[in-house]
Amino acid sequence: MPDQQNVLLKLTTSLNNYNIPYFFINETALWLQGVSPTPNSISISIQWDGFEYVIDEFNKIFGQAIPEHSVEKSVASYEINEQQVIVECTYNTVIRTNPYLVEVPFQDHTVPCLSLYYYQKLPEWESLVNSHLSKMQNKVTEQNEKSWNQHTYEALLNRFGTPEEAATKLKTNPLARLKSLMPFLPQLEGKKVANLMGSHGMKATAMSLLGAKATVIDFSFENERYAKEIAEQCNVDLSYYVSDILKLDEKHDGSYDIVVMELGILHYFLDLQPLFEVVQRLLTPGGAFIVQDFHPISTKLITSKGKKHKVDGNYFDPSIHQRGVAYEKHLENHTEENIVLQRKWTLGEVITGIANENLMIKQVVEEPNSKLHDRGIPKLFTIQAVKQ
């Protein structure tokens, strides 16, 4: 085992025994999260009111270090197995409640780190983290694309019935399929609409029935098959591009009056900025962007089981998680191929990401759950923005 890993294991073993909060920071944190190569030194931040105790104990094990003190922090340096180890504390901060604290797999354990999303906000690290997230997004999209092309058509049949049956319901009442979106959509007649990650295409087909020229952009061939069959049964001309949104051809730029994203899409992106850059590119000047998704209070903070609710999540958790695909419950057989990776975002992160792309936010609406026992818990949020 390389010396850095041996040293890190020694440090975590000792610190865990002291029961004092800590996390790895700077190059060490980014190395542990796969962002950067092996660091020249290992850096740890200790809970400030336990710093002196840790230094006393480390001095017994690793040799004498004399801390240096400044207005904001204290720092001590050790040489362990020819590796420099920097131990510091920042005064009057609480490590356990830091919103960027994450647990990262290491050997057979996990170790606490300051998240890469923290360093993404710092100019000296921004480019490195963005490059890593871009490479990781390619892998995530590849895995998600694979998952969404495994038995998706079968799941759609089990959930919505045959394309003929689904089309009959759509033709009878297209507004029903768009009920939650209609208050935010401009007049659809004659408008060009892009439904990003539009899945089975039923919302796009409903918009087509109401006079729009709708296009779905999605990476699932099986979704495309079901959507095109429904559109054919509805006698509408639905365009469907099978593509990774982030690699969409430039021929689409400035082509759409309205861009719509809805329900369970944002969490497939490890970085929102490249996504909203694409949205901005697709829109015509003055074009409208409507994004509607599940409220993070319900997806990140509260666990619900029937009528019982438990606040046991971390609203600010920036971790990337494995989840089953959305249609998994409609499949008879569950496999590893039905696993996708997700990053759940706070409402503030979504709003900021949109505003950063020269998209003027006109509305942010939070919708309560309609069930009586869920009263007071937000279910959905909708953001309406306009390209300036």
TrEMBL record:
Bilayer-crossing residues are: none
Q: What is this protein called?
A: 2-polyprenyl-3-methyl-5-hydroxy-6-metoxy-1, 4-benzoquinol methylase
Q: Which UniProt keywords apply?
A: Methyltransferase, Transferase
The biological processes this protein is annotated with in GO are: methylation
Among InterPro entries, the record links this protein to: Methyltranfer_dom, NT_sf, SAM-dependent_MTases_sf
Q: Which residues form the Methyltransferase domain?
A: 212-300
Organism name = Guptibacillus hwajinpoensis
Q: List the molecular function annotations (GO) for this entry.
A: methyltransferase activity
